[in-house]
Amino acid sequence: MSVQKWLHDVARPVARRCEWWALWGLLGAVLLLIADGRFRAFGEGSTGIPTALSFVALLGLLLLRMWPGRPTDAGGSTQDGLLATGAAQLTLGFALAQGLGGLWGEAAVVRYAIVAVVLGFHRGLRLAGLSVLALLCEGLFRYATGQHTPSEILGSLLILGLFMGLREAVFRGELLRQQIEHKLRVKDAILDLTRQAELFRLNLTEDSLVATTTEWTDHGSIKTADHVDRSEAEMLILHSAVVMVRQNLDALVGLLRQALGLSTCAVLWQNDDGNKLEVVAASTNSPLTLLRTVPASAGLIGSVRKTRTMLTVTAPKLSQLPYYDRHESGGELDGVRCASAMVLPLFEEGAQCGVLCVDRFISEGETATTFSHRDEEALRAAVPVILRSIQSERVFRSVEQGRDASRGLAAASGLLSAALRPEEVVQTALHAVSRLCPFDFAALTEYDDKLHQHLVLSVSGDAALCREVKDLRFADNEGLCSSVIRRQTILPVGGILRDHGADTQVFDDATRLRGYRWLMVLPLLLHNKPRGTLIVAGRSEKAVPERQALLKVLANQIAVSLDNARMYQAVESLATTDGLTGLYNRRTFQLRIDEMRERAHRQGRTLSLIMCDIDHFKKINDTRGHLVRDEVLRQIARLLGDTVRKVDLAARYGGEEFAILLEATEQEGARLLAERIRQEAEKLTLHSEKGTFFCTLSLGLATFPGDGQSTIELIAHADAALYAAKHGGRNRVVCYRDLQAGKERPAA
């Protein structure tokens, strides 16, 4: 026996057992000293020394037991360890209370806290034993302090017992509540699992569907199958069918391997391109790892696909077995070699679509065995079953994909319907397309029939191509977008690009699609008029032609959503903006100033308001006419709109008066901006039939919260500053704070 094993198996258990008995011995010594009335203080008299030493030893042992990472059992028993630790804690608690002033001193509450904490970690017999120990300690301490009359001891025990009873009642009540909640959660989980398990049965009946879709509502009532999404259940059934068929195929392959003593039995099926085979089912105990995809022309598989007949090889090289990852062993194996291999072709409607590969590996010294006639017959008999499983899986998967496509169309339509603004529709459109058809590149274009131009609104997918065509504007040409607009049909026909290596002109002549296997350019039709195109392209042929009808419906939905969003935007613009200047109107200004003031108050920030007025505007109107007047308003509005930030707000307040709200802007920053606006207005050159003329602005400024706490005060004080600027000489900026300080005075 090694030293390490002896320490683990012998010494450690003995040490723990000794530790346990030592702990109980120390507890007994402390209790005897307490009962003898010798425990008064730490170090009082000669008898205080052993008492203190016992106390320190007991405390040290307790701390050692509670040290992180230390085992909780004592003497090989977790129950013993917990009981010893609890007893030590109770004894120390009573001893500490006595040593710090007695049971009726300031530390008297300590023993109640210790009792509550210790008993809270124990149940059953341990709880009963520790409760008796707590009562015993209480009585012994009473006796040691001289309060040993029956009435005093009994009263003390009753109080402590009542305390422990109340603690236990509270604990039991809380435990019962948690147990009830846990039972309810478990019940809900069982119901949910039962429902899912039943739904995954292939032979699900109508009655079982109703029974298993019964659910519990949040209020405890039963929710019947009428409230359950039946389409969800059907999707689960279809998915379970696909999984079952695949599991049956895996089971068949595993059975063949075990029955014939094979190292590997694998079914490989060609992909859409036809140049690779994918492992659809396999069972192996070979020392090499199976690959997921295999070149269709490599090794024995390539030979079988050429000859279209079964091929058996004795002692083949690893290079002839392309379905193994030979890089793990550098192409060779130590002590193991392949004794024989067989590859059978799999045909579907006369076309070779896959192969069944089997082999046997042997170790050094073993006798190589070739495939017998009975092995060949067994494998040939399994081929029809394998083909039926693959065909069944394809049928179920096709139905599943069809239902999934319908749900994807509904989800995509919902996303488009929820978009209210044109930019939201543009951002959502391609995401909605991805729900129906995985693509490598997609784009959305808009057609302007007046300018005969196309504009790329949104792109997704191929990063290099997206950078090239983003925001591209191109005129009508011979590309596919222009052809689709003119013909109002999907191009190219069938969606498959036979010569996928060649360039395809979709946009202008300078921008081409390269290396794509399929492409669909769909018209966005609204009232039988083309409004744009949807371009979807990919490098794989999977699930493309069958999705054309769904994409066509979605393309029309995009056209409708985009038109509705533009109508909504136009209506919203009429309600919120001034028709002449394009700035926000007074109604919108009143709504926004309240929102911005409230936000500034909540965030502890400032809000500045600039009121500006065109000087001598009535004279311009009287001398130069209404048309020139409107042009002046538009020029000033354009100046204000170009000057303020996106977070700010510029509005026409009324007549020739404008208002500017500057968020999180102090007075000095607002003053600088107002001065810049005044200077830029001076530079404007205006024209009329009577010649060139200029105009100036007067501006008044007030800042929240210093110049006004409410919206009404802020507007009134900014207007007062504007009045001072008008009557102080015009073409100037006046701050309300300066007006209050006497720096600016209205002219008499």
Features:
alpha+beta; Beta-Lactamase; 4 domains
Helical/strand content category:
alpha+beta
Number of beta-strand segments: 24
Report the total helices.
Answer: 20
Strand order of the largest sheet: 6-4-3-10-9-7
User: β content, as a range?
Assistant: 15-25%
Task: Please state the average pLDDT score.
Answer: 75
CATH architecture assignment of the largest domain: 2-Layer Sandwich
CATH superfamily of the largest domain: Reverse transcriptase/Diguanylate cyclase domain
Integer count of domains: 4
Name of the level-1 CATH class of the largest domain: Alpha Beta
Under CATH, the topology of the largest domain can be stated as: Alpha-Beta Plaits
Evaluate the radius of gyration: 44 Å
Main sheet properties: 6 strands, antiparallel
Low-confidence stretches: 38-51, 68-77, 197-228
What gross morphology would you assign?
Answer: flat
- The amount of helix comes to 40-55%
Task: Explain what you see.
The longest helix is centred in the first third of the chain and has 50 residues. This protein is of the alpha+beta class and 748 residues long. It is 52% helix and 19% strand. About 7% of the residues have low confidence. It has 4 domains: 146 residues; 155 residues, Beta-Lactamase; 155 residues, 2-Layer Sandwich (Beta-Lactamase), CATH 3.30.450; 164 residues, Alpha-Beta Plaits (2-Layer Sandwich). It is flat. The N and C termini lie far apart (114 Å).
